[in-house]
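Internal ticket #5521
Category: modeling
Description: The requester needs a full-assembly model to guide mutagenesis choices. All entity lines are attached below as received. Residue total reported by intake: 331.
Assigned to: D.W.
Attached entities:
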Amino acid sequence: MSSLCQHTNKKGTQLRRMMLFSMLGAVLVIMQVALAGLANIELVSVLIIVYTCVFGWYAFIPTYVFVVIQLVLYGFNIWSYFYIYCWAVLIILALPLRHIKSPVLWAMVAGAFGLIFGALSAVTSLFIGGWSFAVAYWINGLLFDFVHCAANFVITLFLYKPLLLILEYGKEKLRI
Amino acid sequence: MLVFLRSLPDHLWMNLQGKEVFYMKNKKIIIVFALVFALLIVSAVTVYVFANSNDADNKYAKTITVLVVVEGRDTKTFTIGTDAEFLLDALNQIELVEGSESIYGFFITTVDGITANENKQEWWAVSKDGEQTLTGVSSTPIKDGDTFELTLSTY
């Protein structure tokens, strides 16, 4: 009887986890679409950071739900490869620091990610036009990387704490 | 909002007030990361300043801006220093476009690695200051300070 209860509880937790992660993936899509018009000002970075702080490795699930929806919405082209790895870099960067709940630290992580965003996307350019094209592409977009860095820093500094709180509250309520 | 905050479990409410979780326990890690972050910024600024000073030395006759607009994606901006007379030659300088010659001139099929999908009736529209150009990309003249948009459109 107790084993049956445990099994049911485990299934229930898995179901709630699946639902929550799908929803969190959808939140990323909505935020990306909503702010697509503002060059390099986005909420995806801070959300993925908070997902990583709260769910650890599980943050890959909503992130790749988001990536797959992006591919379905906009189709697969050479730049899709960039989307496949760029958010994984952020999660991997955030994982070892996830137990430190300092908004200043996370603002710096998000800022640094914004700053290297162009360099990360230049990796894709490397396969299109070789080294010279990749370097030219990176340097050409550096000004936008500075904007991305500053925007990520400010957004994360102010939103990290409330978002973390909401997600931890939800995690606790849903017993995940 | 206040009601929601008050309804939080005690430890989460304390978190919000900065009493439990949001303390600077890991000061050393934060300081190291701050140094790495500062180093990253200084390096990026140095590269940017160096690259732009080189551009100034080259003294191209014209500098144009090209925006690549794809719905749902961030608009990308390219600044091209050039002596070219027509837009296509300037775009080719940074290998931004691919395409083929047609009886109407050069027809763009790919911009910045994104290929227009004919099955979805997509094509790359060229406009200048928001208005579609009347000439093909290979015969559109450019002058210093021009801004062109390459927009993935449907017909």
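Resolution: model delivered.
Comment from assignee: The CA atoms of residues 20 and 62 of chain A lie 9 Å apart.
Ticket closed.
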